[in-house]
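Q&A log
Question type: sequence-to-structure
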Amino acid sequence: MVKFQHAQASHAKIVAQLQSATTNQVIAALGQPYKQMDVEGFNARVNAMAQEGFPISNADMTPHGGVWLYFDSEVKGTSARRYMTIFFNETNRVAKVETTYWMQAP
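Response status: OK
Response body:
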């Protein structure tokens, strides 16, 4: 498991490097993800969390391809965990990178 403890500047640099990257380029840059999800699995998990009152992000979380999660850190004073979440498009290239928060294991 890759663990990030990054400042905003380094996070922005990582995000910039990953734009339109292939899955192999993401692995080369970040290592193996903590968790890989397909569209259906991700949507089911996000919807379940929202119904429990724990939305994972305010950003648009609609995936068009696979979703990879990389553990970032625990949120102090809570049981939440922060993940760098990479959304791929239908051609397995990075579509966007978001930060998501999970109260339970994704």
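Response note: Confidence is low (pLDDT under 50) at residues 1-7.
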